[in-house]
Amino acid sequence: MSSIADELFESRDLLAVGGLVAVSVVTIAVGTNGVVRLPPAVLLLLVLPGYVTAAFAYAEREREPWTFTTLVERFALALGGSLAILPLLAIVVYLAVGALTTWGLVGLVAGYVVVVAGATTVRRAGRSGGSDHWAGPARSRTGRSSSGPFPGSLTPLTAVLAVSMILAVGALGAAVTVPADGETATDLHLLTEQEGRLVANEYPSALTQDESAAITVGVTNDEHRSVEYTVVTELQRVRLDGRSVVVTDKRRIDQHGFELAQGESWRESEEFRATLAGENVRFVAHLYRGDPPENPTADTAYRTTYVWFDVQPSPASGE
């Protein structure tokens, strides 16, 4: 019992790390704004990776009790190590999924922390014991005999650490599966047809009044659940007032309601006539989850995108 108690005492910081990973991931997932999510995000991304890395590196050295000096030293090592490790993990996420996503980075960092914490526990269990926490590279090892039968058999400490790692990974999986409000990934885009292909360029830049044109509106759902959408398309004439855009006239083109499951896409070619003349005319697509209001605007829409073009008056028009 004394040996088990010693192991638990020596690695209680790593048990705390497992709990902090779970709490941080859940808080990031359920936090409704940046103020709530910032502290756990800083802890998870900028402190814990460096802490467990340094703990692993010095697992076979004697560890000293917490003092102000050692606290400053360990925080500096944790922060510096995290700043060195985080870009490497970000590169791994980018190469794995083709984009640097929030939950991709959070998931990889959380996994890295719990795996390295577990590996550190293994090294500590197989070495000579020491005092409370790891010191820096200047500390020397003073030893007593290795405690417990590890690695030949599973110690209670290893089982406790394994459970904490499972809980942390489970919390991460639940948070990723059910993203928080505001952490959404619906893509609204506009395309044009060029040589039989839909491309995100070559939009019409100049039209004559009453001339016809076509723009394809696309929506892709990546919100990890089925969503009912409504797309409202309009032709708008606007006035630029400093940094503000004031809509002076608009004409409804069409409205479409549809439902998309996770990963599904919807596209519709919108043919319209340039009934509004002026230099600041735009084709606008408003996206809503559910039904739109009677007067759709960019402020009320879930997503809004647009294409600018000039519309010259036709010879027969007096506008």
Automatic annotation (TrEMBL):
Domain named DUF1616: residues: 20-309
Transmembrane parts of this sequence: 12-32, 38-59, 71-97, 103-122, 154-176
Region (Disordered): 125-150
Classification via Pfam families: DUF1616
Keywords: Membrane, Transmembrane, Transmembrane helix
Protein name: DUF1616 domain-containing protein
Organism: Halorubrum coriense DSM 10284
